[in-house]
Design goal:
Length: 158
């Protein structure tokens, strides 16, 4: 009987030591990835959080928010891309996705003819609110009335 109790005690101690020394894996708060952002997207709706609708007159240093409604964004997996507005203008971009474990971020730089992305200092960052491969929601932070609000861009994959 002593051998059985002793064996159980040894097994319990070994189990306790092994489980207490194992690393714990923290689950990621999101499942976004670059692959879920790559593709051709149509900007279906633009909404506002924490700001009034007409508070922002120009987005991406290009034009009014309304001009981007219905735009098509082509985002290849190698970072090259473009967006095409309804008025026919096309803007080449270089984009990237950053997931630091805190705030997943979509960022892009507007490119001019013959200019490489590494030579462009200015760019735009948006929080990736959702990305499931079929729908994509990006939130651009905007300072308004001493607080941060957002322009919310909702895309559907073509």
């Amino acid at each position: 009987m002593k051998k059985i109790v002793y064996s159980i005690a040894i097994l319990f101690t070994a189990f306790t030591v092994l489980t207490s020394c194992s690393s714990t894996k923290v689950a990621e708060s999101n499942t976004f990835s670059r692959g879920k952002i790559s593709g051709t997207w149509t900007l279906n709706s633009i909404n506002y959080e924490g700001i009034v609708e007409n508070a922002v007159q120009t987005v991406f240093d290009q034009g009014p928010v309304a001009e981007f409604q219905g735009s098509t964004w082509q985002l290849s997996n190698n970072g090259q891309g473009s967006y095409s507005l309804a008025n026919g203008s096309v803007q080449p971009i270089y984009w990237s996705y950053i997931n630091d474990g805190m705030t997943p971020t979509f960022q892009f730089k507007k490119l001019a003819d013959g200019v490489k992305a590494k030579d462009v200092a200015a760019g735009y960052k948006m929080v990736v609110a959702s990305a499931d491969g079929s729908n994509l929601t990006l939130k651009a932070p905007v300072q308004y009335d001493g607080k941060t609000g957002y322009i919310v861009y909702s895309f559907a994959k073509k």
